[in-house]
Design brief:
This protein has 132 residues and is of the alpha+beta class. 33% of the residues lie in helices and 11% in strands.
Length: 132
Amino acid sequence: MEYQCDSAASADALIARFLGSRYLGRRYLRYAELEALGICDNRGSLVNWMRAGAFPRGIKIPSRYGKTLVWDAVEIAQHIAQRCAEREFASPDISEGGSSRDRPLSDSRETDPFAPGRSEHKASCPYPTDET
């Protein structure tokens, strides 16, 4: 499920849904705004995501103090929409073992590390020791 924006109205709707109404009418987002949205928490990870193609590339625009790196707000909203869709349609087979609610409880005293008397059973150590 990929969201496409054909008009300014659909772009604004996408931004409002995935970024919030505060960002309506915004064309670009700065790093501080990405951080405020909870998308990233450090610049190094963001750069790595962009290099790997896992996050939209930034746009360098000239400013009074040099070049400022910004991101297209619609691209960010589309990226979040795509990630949400991937998460919704992800199969439970992909995750490792599913959630803890889906797994059956173990009744076996042999495999339960918190079973009463478990500390009395000494597990064999795979490394050589001086104990005999």
